[in-house]
Structure formats: C-alpha cells, structure tokens
Amino acid sequence: MTNSTSTATTPAALAGRREWTSLGVLMLPLLLVSMDVSVLYFAIPAISADLRPSGTQQLWIFDIYAFVLAGLLMTMGSLGDRIGRRRLLLIGAAAFGTASLVAAYAGSAETLIAARAVLGVGGATLMPSTMALVRTMFTDPGQRAKAIGLWSGVMTAGIALGSVLSGVLVQYFWWGSVFLVNLPAMALLLVLGPFLLPESKDPRPGRFDRPSVPLSMAAVLPVVYGLKEIPSEGWHARYVVSITVGLLFAALFVHRQRTTAAPMIDPALFRGRGFAASVVLNLLASFAIMGSAFFTTQYLQSVLGKSAMEAALWSLLPSVPIGMAAPMATALVQKGVDRAHVVTAGFAIAAAGYALLAFADTDALWLVLAACGVLASGIVMVISQITDLALGSAPVERAGSASSLMETGAEFGGALGMAVLGSIGTAIYRHGVPATAPEAAHETLGGALAIAGRLPGRAGDALATAAREAFTDGMRGAAIAGAVLLAGAAILAARALRGVHAAGE
What is the model's pTM? Predict the structure, then answer.
C-alpha cells in the first residue's frame, strides 16, 4: 500500500495554464451542487401551487437531495478512486444535468422527488470528485493551497447564492428555471472535461466492498434525518431512536473497514498526521456555520419583517469579507506562519462573530450582518486550511476517499449544529413566550406571528413583540453556546495541529 510519505518525496511539478483552466471548469458544477442545497427556498410556494404536493411530499422535495447526497458521499469517493475521478465526475455531470431537466418539467410531486433524488446521486459524485481532482492536478503545496482556497470559497458562496438566485428566477420566470440553470454548466463540463481534466485513480484499488455501501448509508441517513428534525420537532423518541440506530450501524461500518481485506475507506487514512484532526475540525466548522444560519435567516424575516427576497439580498452582504478570508489564510501559511496558528485564529475569529451576535436585539440588522460576516470569514479560513491539510496528508491514490470523508463530516456537522444550537434557542424561546399564549405560539416564531395576526389590537401586538423578543433571546443564548464551542475548537486546533504539515511542506 502506498503511503503519504511516498507522495512527499516525489518532486512536485508546477501547474500551468491548463490546470488552472481546468479548475475554472470544475468550479461551475461545484457552485451549482452547493447552490442546490438552498435553491428551493423561494421556489417551494410556486411548486406547491402548481403540483399540489401533500405535506409529506413537500418535505421530501426539500430533504431528499441532502439525504441522498450525504448517504452516498463515501461510496462515491471510494468508487472514484477505483474507476477514475474524471470518469465518475462526467457520469455524475450527465446524471445531474438529466435530472435537472426532468425536475424543471416535472408534472407531479412524485416525479420531482425522484428527480431530486437523482440530483443527490449526481451531487455525491461531483463534490468528492472535484476535490480529489484538485488534489491530483495541483501537486505543488503552494498552488494546491491556493486552489483549495478557491474551492472552499466557491462552495460557501454557492450556498448563499442559491436562495437569491431562486428568488430572482421564480420572480421573473417559473419555478422550473431554478433547475434549468444547471444545464449549461454540466454541458460545458461534459464537453471540456475529457480534454482538460486528467484521469486519476488508485493503481491498485482492490475489489469494491459492496456490503460497505448499505452499511455506510444505514450509518449516515438515520443520523442526518434525526438531527435535521430535532430543531423543529424537538427531541422526540423516534428521532433519538433514529440517531441511535445510525450510530450502531456506524460502529458496524467502522468494524468492517478495520477487518475486511479491501475496505471502502482505508483505515490507514487516519494514520496520516493531521487527517483525523482535520475531519473533526471540519465537522466543528460546519456545526458553527449551519447553526448560525438556522437563526439568522429567521431573524431577518420574522423578527425584522423583511420579505424573503429582501432577507436573501441582505444575507449576501456578509459574503463580501468571506471572499478575502481563504486567500488571506493561504498567504499567511505560505509566508511561514504555522498552519496551526492560522486555523486557531480562524476559530477565534468565528467565536468573536458568535460573541458579537450575542449582543443583538430585535432591531440590530447591521450588528447581525457584521456578526455573520465575521463568523463566516473565520470558518472559511479554517475550512480552506484543514481541507488542504487533509488532502495533503492523504495519499494521492486515496484522494477520493479522503474528500468524501471530509464532505460527510461536514454534512454531520451541519446537521448537528442545527440540532444542538437550534434546540438551545428553541428552549429559550419557549420559556420566553408568555404562558398564556396558545400552544402553537410556543412551538415556533412563525406560529406565534400567525396567531398574533388573528388577535385583535393590542393583544396581537403584545404577543408578536413577546415572541420576537423571545426568539432573539434564544438566538443570543445559542450564540453564546456557539462562541464557547468555537473557543474550545480553537484550543483543540492549537494542540492537534501543532507541528503538522501537509505533504511537500
């Protein structure tokens, strides 16, 4: 088995115009895959009016993409190492483009759900394949760091842009247009990919361990499902059971990887210095960013009273400093600053963003936007550096598996952040709503505002004011918890990454 030290001893060739052009081609599908997480935010009312899905079907239209994506990441990362990352990327692009076309013209909720599921399959092939190809195209540590910084920035930007693009397209066209925008990028990738992208795979992959596929999905899906439902539904027994079942399957999956002759995920990856720490720190970074998004989107709309489109446009402002965060972090490392110090500083900056959010009141638009900008900038600094470290620590032939583990950790972290911080905020909110308010007002801020709108005069105004203040108190409480967690992450990063370097550094 080839190890990471062999990679380090091979002279690194500098990437040229072809590789940087290839990176630009890869950024388009990455942007669209990350946008698809949030692209339905504004389209769902139009979809509901046209297709008339049931409540359960509407939830599946939203969630099936993320569930399938999360469940198949490890499988697809390992498959790419075996059959070739470019080959898998092009297969995924064809599937993603075809499913986008079907989704755009879906005549029923069932068809749209099925198309969204296939989009999840395509997304699961595209995300680890793009990251793995970046690892193989950019072998020089400095160039690799810059390329991964761009990769991290584009992925983060895609999530923010998805909801805005959705609102613009639905306003001027029809809901199917949010899927049609995927077609030109996928077509460009299919045309240029075979000529620009190098093929790379593990030269000695071994057999593909089929039993690991259902085991990995059984480990990921129940946990992600339970964590996604807890913020809105509470810690009901079925969600706790779902998480528990997923963790049991995770234990079985890990056992199989350690005992089978040809594991889907080679345990040797975790023996590379810095890889295990990078996966954990990546999970914590995703925890922080998704946990804050749970509150800030509701704050803009339900507390400040912004329309969905206004809220989406305002939420773009924090993206301005994000674009400078990854290049700045990369420049610091290349100038000799210890990567451990840069990652620690990123977590500290993100913690300061949460601390700033803890001072928000019910009329603090600019404070909340500034807090989000500081938080996200710190997180992007972290993600760009630990992604570079993880990929640089892993053998090139395991780049797909390494990428998929980082992505799976991010999915877990995001779901966990929404569950934990969302639960903290919800508990504080429910305590703050007047005991005399109707039961529905204690569940969500949206429910409270709906009831307040039906109450006469001062009674409605009083309930709305109390609910907004209670939600803001909950957001502050969750922000304090987030700041404490990120301060702990900064300490962990300083200890775990001390003296750790990627290959070639």
Answer: 0.79
